[in-house]
Amino acid sequence: MTSPSPSPDATAPAKARSRDLAMDSAAGILICLVVFGHAIAPLDSRVVETVEQWLYMFHMPAFVFVSGYLTRYSRTWSPVRLVLRLGFPYVVFSVIHALELAALTGEPVSVTLLNPDWTLWYLLALLAWRLAAPLLRVDQWMVIVTVLVALIAGVFPILDTTLSAQRIFGFAPFFTLGLVWKDQWWRYVRNWPVRFAALAAFAGAFVWSWFTEDEVSRRIFFLHVGYEDLGHPEWYGMIVRFLVITVGGLLALGLLSWMSSSYKLMTGIGAATLPVYLLHPLFLYPGREDGYQFPFDDTVALVVLALASCLFAYVFSRPFMVALVRPFMDYTFWRDLGRRAVGRRRQEAPQDADTP
Fold first, then answer.
1. In whole angstroms, what is the distance from residue 51 CA to residue 47 CA?
2. pLDDT at 209 over 50
3. How far from the centroid of its chain's Cα atoms is residue 301's Cα?
C-alpha cells in the first residue's frame, strides 16, 4: 500500500480498465487444486496428509484473491442480481447435496440452508464479499481492517459455520487484497528473484507440513470456527490466525507470481470455474462417505487423483457442459425462458383475437 488515500483505479468504472488475463490461468489452476484437495481427503497416509496440509495453506487464499480481483471488473453492482446469481445455485445444489447424501446413507433428506453443506459455503461467502465490495474497495487500508476483523471474529463462538459467518470474516482479507490490487504491482511480484523466493517458500512450507502433519490440525487453515472450538485461548488463537492469514497471503502471491496468460489450457478452464466447483462434490461424495477401493497405495493414488482432477476440470468447463448445467446454476436461464414464452404468447394473441 502506497497511500492511505482512496485509490482512483480501485473505484473507477470497470469498463475503463483492462484486467490481467493471467488471472484466468490462475483461476484454472486453482479450481484444479480445489478438486484435487477434496478428492484426496479420504486417503490416509503421511504423504497424503502432508500434501493436504500444504495445499490448504495457500490454495483457498489464492482462490479468494482471484475472486476479489475479478470482482473489480463486474460491470454493475446490484444487490438483487447478486442474491439471485449466487443464491439460486446455492439453493438448488443444497437440495441436490441433500438428496445424494440421503441416497448414500439411507438417512432422511435434510436441507440445511443456514448451514451450507461441504463446498457450498463459498457461494454464501462470495455473496457477502461482493455485496460489501463498494465498502471494501474504498481504500487500500481496508486490507488491514479486514485482517483485524478476522482476528476479532474468532473470539465470538456465535460466529461459526452458520451462514459461513466465520469463513466470511476469516477469508475477507484475501478477497479485499484482490479487490484493491493494482496491476502495476505485478512488476514487483512477477520477476525472477521473487519467483525463486516463492519456490523456496513453497518448499519450506512442504517440509514444515511433513514434520508437523501429525501435530497441527488442518482446521486452523479452514477459518471456519472460532478459537474456542479449536481449543485455543483467545490470545493464542489470534496469533495462529494471524500467521495463517499472513502465510496464506504470501504463498498466494508467490503462486500468482508464476501466472501467465500463455497457459491456454488453464485459461479455458478458468473461464468457467463455477460448474466445476458446483459439480465436483457430487462425484466425490461416494468416496468421501465410504472411502476408495484402489488396487494401489496412496502415493500412486495421489498421482491418479491429480490427473483425474485436472481432467474433470477440463471436461466440465467446456462450453457444452456449461450449457448443459446452466439450468441448475443460472437463474437467467429460467428468466429468459419465461420471457420467450411470454413473447410467443403476445405474438399469437392478435391471431386469436381475429378468430371467429
1. 6
2. yes
3. 24
Summarised one tens digit per residue, pLDDT across range 172-205 is: 999 999 999 999 999 999 999 999 999 999 999 9
Q: Could you read off the pLDDT of 165-180 as tens digits, one per residue? A: 999 999 999 999 999 9
pTM of the predicted structure, to 2 decimals: 0.90
Strands (E), 8-79: none
Task: Output DSSP code: residue 108.
Answer: P
Closest to 90 (Cα-Cα) out of 37, 42, 128, 36: 128
Q: Give 220's Cβ-side CA count (13 Å radius).
A: 23
Report the candidate in 242, 341, 260 with the shortest Cα–Cα distance to residue 29: 260
Q: Nearest 5°: phi and psi at 44?
A: -145, 95
Determine the Cα–Cα distance for residues 66 and 68; give it in Å rounded to an integer: 5
Measured distance CA(270)–CA(27) in Å, rounded? 4
Angle between helices 46-56 and 298-315 (to 10 degrees): 40
Q: Is the pLDDT of residue 5 over 90?
A: no
